[in-house]
Write a structure and sequence with these properties.
The chain is α+β, with helices and mostly antiparallel strands. 48% of the residues lie in helices and 16% in strands. It has 4 domains: 160 residues, no CATH class; 152 residues, no CATH class; 125 residues, Sandwich (Immunoglobulin-like), CATH 2.60.40; 231 residues, Orthogonal Bundle (Phosphatidylinositol 3-kinase, Chain A). It contains 28 helices and 17 strands. One of its GO terms (biological process) is signal transduction. It comes from Paragonimus skrjabini miyazakii.
């Protein structure tokens, strides 16, 4: 420590610590002065917490100056620690390094505390906006410093400082065969992914009590000596006071224990999957989840009545039952799998509830893995002694780079020590399973009428849809999806959904462009926003260059008697093999005979602008555009015949229930189902005369005349047929936009769809095949099939090139 440079670094760090101390003292004084006025809404609470921004800046300065000091500590061994702690033991070095890093823990604590403070602040309080701005600023200031925890005691240099990137509670599918699930806490650091087991501290008490009971049994049976009794008695009373003392100090009721961890340079992310249930098991699982939700809602209703009566004993029992049910629900609800593999080929299956949550984790993991690999590649190129960078996705490589050999491995015990810093992040209910929301503050219960109006600020002609999630049961769950609005700037939906919610606190709108997340908006459910008024909120897109758009919606709380009766009108007839006009009339009732421009239907959010496309067609095309555009061979790869038949029978029995089931069905099954619907129509979509006229027109050598004649023929089709065909054409063009990924260009799509849309030879000619005419018959069918494919390709290409345009009224879809 004789070097002037080292002395300067220590002095700089000392100055930062002094400034932090003064700032913290000032903050505490202001906070105490604020306490008598806590109930006064006019008090500027936000100004008091504004100094935390300055503290965050000081913490960043402290972080930059700390690594050299830690490196000096590793060089000077235990001398510095001995001078400070006056002990000189090897443990002093670790405790001293931990002591120096303690201020870094304030970073994530500050962000989390301000987040909780925002959640507890009433919406009408003028300080809420300041606190929300403070939260955003703290997140921005801490982006390079978020929860920095130095892996002390290993001599790791400053470049290896570990940062927490993302964390959340998840469910791990331990055994897919038995559907065994475990609650886990997943933490993504800058260099490693850690999956931790959540251990309740009262379980430690139970283990101790079991040990004590065994000791008592031994004493009773063997009548051991007084020394053993003294020893057992000492063990009996040694740990309980500590646990009670910890609980009195307000320590977390749980601890994290490392279950498994994967270094990011050895981590692989597999394709998204879904829990593989057959139809029978899927129905049983859905019934089980709905039964748990019903029980929770019933118990919550009883809890509210008991709270009014003041029955504390029964209330506690009921709360315990509710938390147990919530825990079961948290384990059973997730069905979306995010598979994660290591370099040995072992796959860990993480279960998540919503597609939004899975997308967040996948994006974070892909970004972190890319950064680690880029860092290793740059080290390898800058240092020739580092060896060759070897991919770790195909198994354990026999070759190891010098950089990998030099980097120390983190043991489970070291990781457990690190995880102690993050125990306070976990919010559990009393069963240790479900995530607590808003510290037990009662949420909104009832029927939330949600209307999605539209978006302003989007000038591109593209396809958009919105998913709606609500956190009724301790976690976000998808409750509704809007239709897909295709090829329209500033898309408008004006769709209303009646969402049954129970103790909900937040609603989230996720806007998709095709199958990509385009923007997100999470709204706290307060009296100010549940007012049946149109709310316009700005939000930033998730594009490479973010921009600000305006999303409009409205929320209101309805009584059950105000909800429109939605009788199922599709149980009285089958769907497949039924004439198109009858299907549309059955789907939309009186709307079928109304013009889209009728003033009585134009402003009604629940009535369609386009009522001439069957619901099953719109449901299938929307589902494919949501999650099938990147599937290789979509419409070419056939789905399972058993699955197709099962969903087809369900749709014929109950159309609405079948449409609800589509998101759970394999996407290739949905694509095959749509093609089968058109094949089984009594009359082809383009009709017999229309098919012949279009195929003849395709031979017209004059392109301009050919396009005009085709447009005339399409416009002459029956209204339902024309608008359904146009809807399908626009959908196929959307699929074609992803041809580089799904390998489905216009030629392939025309080949696969022509026989389903045109009148085939066997439909209008009952020519009996005999050995004499078999060859001619096959040649004729082949020639007709070729001409159909050619004609459909011409139509698709003309629409794509804007040579063939359709009326505006058919560009907006609805169910």
């Amino acid at each position: 420590m004789k070097s002037p440079k080292q002395i300067k670094k220590v002095n700089e760090l000392k100055c930062v610590i002094a400034d932090l101390h003064d700032l913290q003292t000032n903050f505490v004084q202001k906070l105490r002065a604020l306490q008598p006025f806590a109930d006064n809404s006019s008090q500027e609470v936000g100004d008091v917490f504004r100094c935390m921004i300055q503290r965050q800046n000081y913490l960043c300065m402290y972080h930059k100056r700390l690594p050299p000091i830690l490196d000096m500590c590793s060089v000077t061994s235990t001398k510095i620690a001995g001078d400070v702690n006056k002990k000189g033991a090897q443990d002093d070095l670790s405790s001293f390094r931990q002591f120096l890093q303690e201020p870094l823990n304030w970073v994530v604590e500050s962000v989390e505390n301000i987040k909780q403070l925002c959640a507890a602040t009433p919406a009408h309080n003028p300080d809420l906006h300041k606190l929300e701005m403070l939260y955003e600023t703290l997140m921005t200031e801490s982006i390079e410093l978020n929860a920095v925890i130095h892996a002390y005691g290993r001599g790791i240099v400053s470049s290896d400082i570990r940062k927490l990137r993302m964390h959340s509670m998840v469910v791990e599918l331990v055994n897919p065969q038995t559907d065994e699930r475990k609650l886990r806490y997943l933490l993504l650091f800058s260099d490693i992914l850690v999956c931790a087991k959540i251990v309740r501290k009262d379980s430690i008490k139970q283990k101790n009590s079991v040990i004590n009971e065994r000791l008592k049994s031994i004493r009773h049976k063997e009548k051991s000596s007084q020394s053993i009794r003294n020893l057992s008695s000492q063990r009996l009373h040694s740990k309980s006071p500590d646990l009670l003392e910890n609980s009195d100090r307000g320590d977390p009721a749980v601890r994290l224990e490392t279950k498994w961890m994967i270094p990011l340079n050895q981590l692989g992310i597999c394709l998204n999957q879904r829990v593989d249930y057959d139809n029978l098991k899927m129905s049983e699982q859905e019934r089980k989840i709905e039964q748990i939700k019903f029980s929770i809602s019933t118990f919550r209703s009883g809890k509210r009545h008991l709270a009014e009566e003041g029955s504390s004993v029964r209330l506690r029992r009921l709360e315990h039952s509710i938390t147990k049910l919530e825990g079961r629900l948290v384990l059973q609800t997730p069905q979306l799998i995010l598979p994660i593999s290591d370099n040995s080929g072992q796959v860990r299956q993480i279960l998540l509830v919503t597609e939004r949550e899975r997308n967040h984790w996948r994006t974070a993991l892909e970004t972190a893995v890319y950064q680690v690999k880029e860092g290793l590649a740059s080290k390898s190129s800058n240092n020739t002694s580092c060896g060759v960078l070897v991919s770790t996705f195909d198994g354990i490589s026999e070759k190891r780079t010098n950089a990998e050999q030099c980097s120390p491995r983190t043991t489970h015990s070291e990781m457990n020590e690190l995880l102690k810093k993050y125990q306070y992040l976990i919010r559990l209910n009393k069963t240790g399973m479900a995530l607590l929301k808003d510290h037990g503050v009662p949420g909104i219960t009832g029927i939330l009428r949600t209307t999605v109006h539209g978006i302003q600020g989007l000038n591109e002609l593209d396809s958009y849809h919105v998913w709606i999630e609500v956190d009724s049961y301790a976690q976000f769950e998808e409750l509704a999806r809007t239709r897909v609005v295709a090829h329209q700037p500033n898309p408008e939906w004006n769709q209303t959904f009646d969402l049954q919610i129970d103790e909900a606190h937040r609603i989230c709108f996720t806007i998709y462009r095709h199958c990509d997340v385009f923007a997100e908006l999470e709204v706290k459910l307060t009296e100010d926003c549940i007012c049946n008024k149109v709310i316009s909120m700005p939000l930033k897109t998730k594009e490479a260059t973010p921009r600000t758009i305006t999303f409009t919606f409205s929320l209101s709380l309805c009584k059950p008697c105000e909800v429109r009766n939605r009788s199922v009108t599709t149980k009285h007839g089958r769907v497949f093999g039924h004439p198109l006009p009858d299907l549309v009339r059955r789907d939309y009732g009186e709307q079928f005979n109304k013009s889209p421009s009728d003033p009585k239907t134009h402003n009604d959010s629940n009535k369609s602008k386009n009522i001439r496309v069957p619901k099953i067609v719109v449901a299938c095309t929307d589902e494919i555009e949501r999650r099938g555009l990147r599937e290789v061979g979509i419409y070419r790869v056939c789905g399972s015949n058993n699955d197709i038949q099962a969903i087809k029978e369900l749709i014929d029995q109950d159309l609405e229930e079948g449409i609800k089931r589509l998101p759970c069905v394999e996407i290739f099954v949905v694509a095959s189902l749509l093609k089968q619907f058109f094949r089984e129509l009594p009359e082809s979509l383009l009709t017999g005369p229309g098919s012949i006229a279009l195929m003849q027109t395709a031979e017209n050598p004059n392109e301009e005349n050919r396009i005009l004649q085709m447009k005339t023929i399409i416009n002459s089709l029956p209204g339902v047929n024309k608008e359904t065909f146009v809807h399908l054409v626009m959908h196929l063009l959307t699929v074609n936009r992803y041809k580089e990924v799904n390998m489905m260009d216009l030629s392939n799509l025309a080949l696969l769809w022509s026989t389903a849309l045109f009148q085939t030879v066997t439909r209008h000619q009952s020519m009996e095949r005999t050995p004499a005419n078999l060859f001619d018959s096959l040649n004729q069918e082949a020639a007709v099939s070729f001409q159909q494919t050619k004609t459909l390709h011409i139509i698709l290409q003309a629409v794509q090139d804007n040579f063939l345009a359709f009326e505006e009224s058919v560009k907006t879809r609805d169910i």
